[in-house]
Amino acid sequence: MAEDQVIVGLEVHCQLDTKSKLFCGCSTDYRDDGPNTHVCPVCLGLPGAMPVLNKRSIEYAMKVAKALNCTVLHESEFSRKNYFYPDLDKAYQITQYDKPLAEGGYLEIESDEGGERRIQLTRIHVEEDPGRLVHMGNAERGKYSLVDYNRAGIPLIEIVSEPDMRSPKEARKFLNKLRATLEYLSVFDSDKEGSLRVDANISIKGNERVEVKNITSYKGVEKALTYEVTRQKNLIRRGVRIERETRHFIESTGITQSSRSKEQEHDYRYFPEPDLRPLHVQSWVAGIVLPELPDARRERFVAQYGCSLNHARTLTGELKLANFFEKIVAADPQGLSTLAATWIADTLIGELNYRSMSLDSVDAAQFTELVDILKQGSITDKSGIEVLRIMLDQHMKNEPAEAPAAIVSRLNLAKTSGDTGIITAAINEAITENPKALEDYFAGKGGALNFLVGHVMKKTRGKADPGELNRMLVEALKKKEA
Ligand code: ZN
Ligand code: MN
pLDDT for 189-230, tens place per residue? Predict the structure, then answer.
């Protein structure tokens, strides 16, 4: 390890996508409803209310444990974690302490140097989500907070990694891979606001570590850690000792801020939850059958569709993307795979990101038609991008969707190939208009041909097939020489 090696460990809280809460029958589908409408005596922590364990959440947690190669413990147990805070109605959280559901395990990520790298896990435990505080007003005008217990009792798993990541980028890769794995297991919905929260431990080798709490976005994790790396390295350079402390990430400014440390020094007085029996789930976990996971699907995409490793990695990195790809190529895997992989991984994702659009807004049938047109070679790649952009823009503006073929004919984008007359005319024009380039070409200057190609392209408005155009141009130049 280098002297200023960055060391990162993560604690990731993920909401399990069950229908009801962890210890009561309240619906977990609370986001669009008013505050405190998905509550009952159990999740409100009213005196005398007894928790009843939701088996489905344990099944989901075991699926995760198995998929992440963890050891499910012979006996695990719920504990009470006592602390006073308004988002915690009972003044304790039911969680797992010294007997978590599972220990060990690992997740493989693509390392910064390429190839796979194993990030070891410490443990996975199950716990309930606290409520949600909504802070109103500001410091000058009567600041107050509202509390919403709709979230109280939503099942969470907390996945704790070993400090095995070596850069903010690796931390992001870990999270992306984790998200993909959870989605493949159908136990998690990353589209739901607040479904994932991360606490990150970060240190520079040989120095104290700092904990950055409650980062709520995937991008936020990399940003917060990048900020910390700079801050900590600067302190070390100036000879300032790094204090062990807890910091908060401020999403809007991208910086971390020290939390008053006294508030953080809790004594949680853990003790076993008396209202719930210990769990013995080993025979249950043995019977769980896992679906195909991201790594396996990636290998299959390479073997079955001939995808490049990079394309396969991108396509299988998100469940929706992988499903979309297989839907597109379903009718003609042989003919469409390579084109579809390229157009989805290299073009579509970028165009979607640029517009902050989600894949859900792309019509698979429409996209398949576009790939099919490209396969037939009747339009150039350049025109293909133009058609795709029109499709996406129409969707964004809520305009009726136009079939790719209709766009091609409306804008007269069909390749001029076959109609070589147009290309020949454009070539002749380009040659006449650029005598200097012609001279350069015959003098053996490399850039001249490309220069002429560019001119011909412009004249044919990108509709000429680049290969054909090149061939015809070289042919025409040969004639000139003779
Ligand atoms: Zn409830
Ligand atoms: Mn926790």
Answer: 999 999 999 999 999 999 999 999 989 988 899 999 999 999
Q: Closest Cα partner for 64 from 25, 35, 105?
A: 105
Q: How far is the CA of 126 from the centre of ligand 1 (A)?
A: 17
Cβ pair 162, 54 in contact under 8 A: no
Task: Report the alpha-carbon distance of residue 404 to residue 49 in Å, rounded.
Answer: 60
Any idea how long the chain is? 482
Beta strands in 260-408 (DSSP E): 271-272
User: Average pLDDT of 30-48?
Assistant: 95
**Tens-place pLDDT, residues 377-433:** 889 999 999 999 999 999 999 999 999 999 999 998 887 755 677 788 888 888 889
Distance from the alpha carbon of residue 246 to the mean position of ligand 2, in angstroms: 15
Q: How much is the CA Rg of the chain, to the nearest whole Å?
A: 29
CB 332, CB 324: distance < 8 Å:
no
Express as a percent the part of the chain with pLDDT over 70. 96
Ligand closest to CA 15: 2
Q: How far is the CA of 9 from the centre of ligand 1 (A)?
A: 33
Token readout for 378 is 């009747």
β pairing state of 106-110 and 92-95: unpaired
As a whole number, the mean pLDDT across the chain is 92
Question: What is the pLDDT at residue 203?
Answer: 97
Dmax over CA atoms of the chain, in Å, equals 100
Distance 123 CA to ligand 2 centre (A): 12
The CA 33 to ligand 1 mean position distance, Å, reads: 15
Distance 84 CA to ligand 1 centre (A): 20
Cα atoms in the 13 Å half-sphere on the side-chain side of 264: 13
Q: Is the CB of residue 301 less than 8 Å from the CB of residue 315?
A: yes
Compute the average pLDDT of residues 270-288.
Answer: 95
DSSP string, 15-71: E---SB-SSS--BS--TTSPTT-S--TTTTT-TT------HHHHHHHHHHHHHTTPE
Distance 42 CA to ligand 1 centre (A): 5
382 is written with which tokens? Answer: 């350049």
Those residues with Cβ within 8 angstroms of residue 33's Cβ, 6 or more apart along the chain or in another chain:
150
Q: Measured in angstroms, how far is the CA atom of residue 214 from the centroid of ligand 2?
A: 10
